[in-house]
């Protein structure tokens, strides 16, 4: 089978999967509820800001963590947001599984010995 044909078949299968259909429905519901949508955006903005802070090497305070946990608890009470997050998670798991399967299959092709980076002359004190 031609790999391009297989990819198109995979794409079609993904679009027709229960996981993708549920996510599409959950997205549509979220878009119609402005309040829920804004709550989710606020939560994700806060979450992103904390992750950015951590990656910058700035310590995240327990107050900041508590605030994020409280926001998560609040948004999880909203059934529209909760359904969206669950559907989003299911799609993420599905895509991770697909990626792992492809990675495992293509990993057999790559010879790790051929992937070694050449030594830089500057790393060798005798050079």
How does this model look, in words?
This protein is mainly alpha-helical and 127 residues long. It has a single domain (3-109), classed as Up-down Bundle (YheA-like fold), CATH 1.20.1500.10. Helix content is 76%, strand content 0%. It is built from 5 helices and no strands. The chain has helices spanning 3-16, 18-32, 34-55, 62-77, 79-107. Helix 2 packs antiparallel against helix 5 (79-107) and helix 3 (34-55) packs antiparallel against helix 4 (62-77). The longest helix has 29 residues, at 79-107. The model has no long low-confidence stretch (mean pLDDT 91).
Please provide a brief summary of the model.
By secondary structure, the chain is mostly helical.
Indicate the topology.
Layout (H helix, E strand, L loop, with lengths): L2 H14 L1 H15 L1 H22 L6 H16 L1 H29 L20
């Amino acid at each position: 089978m031609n790999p391009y044909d297989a990819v198109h078949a995979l794409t079609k299968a993904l679009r027709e999967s229960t996981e993708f259909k549920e996510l599409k429905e959950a997205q549509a519901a979220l878009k119609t509820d402005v309040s829920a949508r804004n709550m989710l955006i606020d939560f994700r903005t806060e979450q992103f800001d904390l992750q950015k802070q951590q990656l910058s090497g700035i310590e995240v305070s327990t107050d900041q963590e508590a605030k994020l946990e409280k926001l998560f608890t609040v948004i999880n009470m909203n059934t529209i947001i909760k359904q969206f997050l669950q559907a989003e998670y299911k799609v993420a798991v599905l895509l991770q599984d697909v990626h792992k399967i492809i990675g495992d299959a293509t990993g057999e092709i790559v010879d790790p010995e051929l992937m070694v980076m050449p030594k830089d002359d500057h790393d060798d004190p005798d050079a």
